[in-house]
């Protein structure tokens, strides 16, 4: 049976609260303003205390456990309704409803083997409806499919242009708890989040289709990457953990963009020695692949050579000037100019002259020495100087029995 306080809280509380002003006027009629003010404060405190007591009484009247359920469509569900004191309890529900018990009990179970009502709101109640609690229940369904596409298919996708992506999530409930995220996956597999969207929680319980869109502007670095969207049903801590996620198919991105020359070391000036070989290689990034033209300093300005590499062997001074490369595709072109200065290497000439001077000096030295030697050693000798002189007196000297005479 319900206590007197419970009956009072349920049946009389609203009427009593609405009559509080009349009660204050009754007890303070004809009294001073100060007395009336004090009385109003006192009555206000009494009413507040009674309200807190009634709220506590209502809260403890029936207890549902668990108080919140998150159930997948078609799965079983169960919850208990209990009271501190034995009472007649029943469950009102479109599925699994239970009438009032024949006798007073403290607990009554509600159970459904296969939950198929999207808008179900089971309520536990006591005899006379003096106490009633509703079970908070969410029925969910994972999407049948998630797909991504272009609202208008680009043919081809061009750098810097804007395209509308569309993510379609089919047959999901509740759609208000759905979060859709767009991703880009580059050629190395790195995934980047582009945007996350969630529709307003408009209390739609039945399955719905959801369409989410995103404006996407590709760059040249996006060529070869992929786009996808991911649908996550976030049902809170009572729902499945981690929240279920379903990814879409992947869109391959083919981005067309104008050429950008990547010549190494770039557009520059260079010097080269006369007689060496000049080689200039023009390369560029572009989609479609670019073609190449070279404008040479010796050529007619209206004439270009269709090639990516320029090679000149045994380069001469006349080859000095600007060499301009043009990389071209249907989206545009890119140019790069290399200034070439042909210089003469004077070191070999100087070395040759020095060697010639040395040879000439050696020849002159040899000739001078030879002339001097002949004049000095051969030109001043006379035959008479080579013969012994004769003396007028002769001397005979005898040595050891032998005569020798000296003139």
Automatic annotation (TrEMBL):
Database matches in SMART domains: IG, IGc2
Annotated SUPFAM superfamilies: Immunoglobulin
Domain Ig-like intervals: 259-343
Taxonomy, superkingdom: Eukaryota
TM segment ranges: 346-369
Keyword entries, A-Z: Membrane, Transmembrane, Transmembrane helix
Positions with biased composition (Polar residues): 203-214
Region Disordered, residue ranges: 193-214
GO biological process, one term: cell adhesion
Gene Ontology molecular-function annotations: integrin binding
InterPro entries given in the database record: ICAM_VCAM, Ig-like_dom, Ig-like_dom_sf, Ig-like_fold, Ig_sub, Ig_sub2
Entry keyword Transmembrane helix: yes
PANTHER family, sorted: INTERCELLULAR ADHESION MOLECULE, INTERCELLULAR ADHESION MOLECULE 5
Stated name of the protein: Ig-like domain-containing protein
Originating species: Oncorhynchus mykiss
């Amino acid at each position: 049976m319900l206590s007197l306080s419970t009956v009072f809280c349920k049946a009389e509380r609203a009427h009593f609260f609405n009559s509080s002003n009349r009660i204050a006027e009754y007890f303070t009629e004809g009294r001073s303003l100060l007395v009336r003010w004090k009385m109003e404060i006192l009555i206000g405190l009494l009413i507040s205390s009674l309200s807190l007591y009634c709220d506590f009484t209502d809260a403890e009247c029936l207890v549902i456990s668990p108080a919140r359920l998150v159930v997948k469509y078609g799965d079983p569900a169960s919850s208990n309704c209990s009271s501190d004191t034995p009472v007649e309890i029943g469950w009102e529900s479109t599925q699994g409803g239970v009438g009032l018990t024949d006798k007073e009990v403290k607990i009554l179970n509600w159970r459904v083997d296969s939950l198929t009502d999207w808008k179900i709101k089971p309520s536990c109640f006591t005899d006379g409806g003096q106490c009633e609690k509703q079970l908070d229940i969410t029925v969910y369904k994972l999407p049948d499919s998630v797909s991504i596409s272009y609202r208008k298919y680009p043919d081809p996708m061009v750098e810097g242009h804007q395209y509308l992506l569309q993510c379609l999530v089919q047959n999901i409930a509740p759609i208000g708890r759905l979060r859709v995220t767009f991703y880009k996956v580059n050629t190395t597999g790195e995934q980047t989040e582009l945007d996350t969207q969630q529709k307003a929680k408009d209390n739609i319980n039945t399955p719905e289709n959801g369409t989410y869109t995103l404006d996407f502007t590709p760059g040249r670095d996006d060529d070869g990457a992929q786009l996808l969207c991911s649908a996550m049903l976030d049902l809170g801590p009572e729902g499945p953990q981690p929240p279920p996620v379903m990814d879409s198919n992947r869109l391959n991105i083919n981005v067309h963009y104008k050429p950008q020359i990547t010549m190494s070391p770039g557009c520059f000036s260079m010097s080269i020695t006369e007689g060496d070989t000049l080689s200039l290689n023009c390369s560029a990034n572009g989609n479609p692949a670019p073609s190449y033209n070279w404008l040479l300093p010796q050529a007619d300005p209206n004439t270009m050579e269709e090639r990516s590499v320029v090679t000149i062997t045994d380069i001469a001074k006349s080859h000095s000037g600007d060499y301009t490369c043009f990389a071209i595709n249907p989206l545009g072109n890119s140019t790069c100019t290399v200034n070439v200065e042909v210089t003469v290497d004077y070191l070999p000439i100087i070395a040759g002259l020095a060697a010639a001077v040395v040879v000439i000096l050696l020849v002159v030295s040899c000739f001078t020495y030879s002339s001097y030697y002949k004049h000095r050693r051969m030109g001043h000798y006379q035959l008479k100087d080579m013969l012994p002189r004769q003396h007028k007196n002769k001397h005979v000297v005898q040595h050891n029995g032998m005569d020798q005479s000296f003139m």
